[in-house]
Design a protein that fits this description.
Blueprint (H helix, E strand, L loop, with lengths): L1 H5 L2 H14 L13 E10 L4 E9 L2 E9 L3 E9 L4 E5 L8 E5 L4 E5 L3 H22 L35 E2 L6 E2 L7 E2 L9 E2 L2 H8 L3 H4 L3 H4 L23
Antiparallel strand pairs: 1-2, 1-7, 2-3, 3-4, 5-6, 6-7, 8-9, 10-11
Length: 249
């Protein structure tokens, strides 16, 4: 089915429309063999609050962006190669329902669909695309992924020292290895994580000690297991500002 659509005029036209919606700031999306599989609005759990994002699934990449005008204009384009993607379902809890984790070596995050059927369709299509890509390339699935950041709202005190309370002066920071919300004194060190950045990034003291001693596996936080065990923020507070996880803290 995908192969038949690859060079069709309808597929080329659909991809061109997506390109135009992102404008000049977006990267070109039309390449030989690329097929637009589907699209839709998902709620992405960002650092400060859940936010509506427009997602486009292609047979080789996943693209998403901020919604400026629905079906007409998007910005802050993000492109994720599907070969590097693994997904895990998240248990329903409170307002956050029909969700799953999208995990890659450089960035990982949670998204939520409007219905269980929509969630199932998204996950099935993503898994099929990833499976087809890996089959064609002969590569194996990635076993390394960036931590999913714990939302700011889940931590009133530092998740490492359990003492420092967060205030407008005592700011929240995120460890790039475990994703925990930590205070400044607990995250003063930096470490090179090549899959995430070419420069050393902020990590907490706990992860720094493990990484420095070579115990990297013990430092990896399994957010897919622990994600549903912590309190979640409300889905009702959705805005169209930039992705918070892209900040330097």
């Amino acid at each position: 089915m995908v192969d038949r659509l690859a060079n069709s005029e309808a597929n080329t036209r659909r991809i061109s429309i997506v390109e135009n919606c992102f404008g000049a700031a977006g990267q070109p999306l039309t390449i030989p063999g690329r097929v637009l599989i589907g699209e839709g609005v998902l709620t992405k759990l960002c650092r400060k609050k859940p936010k509506a994002r427009q997602f486009f699934l292609f047979n080789d990449i996943l693209v998403y962006g901020n919604i400026v005008i629905q079906k007409k204009k998007y910005n802050k384009q993000h492109i994720i190669p599907l070969e590097n993607v693994t997904i895990d379902s998240i248990q329903d809890e409170g307002d956050l329902r029909n969700g799953w984790l999208i995990k890659t070596p450089t960035k990982s995050f949670a998204v939520y669909a409007a219905t269980a059927t929509e969630k199932s369709e998204w996950m099935n299509h993503i898994n099929k695309c990833v499976s087809d890509l890996l089959s064609k390339s002969g590569k194996t699935p990635s076993n390394e992924h960036a931590a999913v950041w714990v939302p700011d709202s889940e931590a009133t005190v530092c998740m490492r020292c359990q003492k420092a309370k967060f205030t407008p002066v005592n700011r929240r920071h995120h460890c790039r290895k475990c994703g925990f919300v930590v205070c400044g004194p607990c995250s003063e060190k930096r470490f090179l994580l090549p899959s995430q950045s070419s420069k050393p990034v902020r990590i907490c003291d706990f992860c720094y000690d493990l990484l420095s001693s070579g115990e990297m596996a013990a430092c990896q936080s399994s957010r897919s297991d622990s994600y549903s065990q912590s309190p979640k923020s409300s889905l009702n507070d959705v805005s169209d500002d930039d992705d918070d996880e892209d900040s330097s803290d």
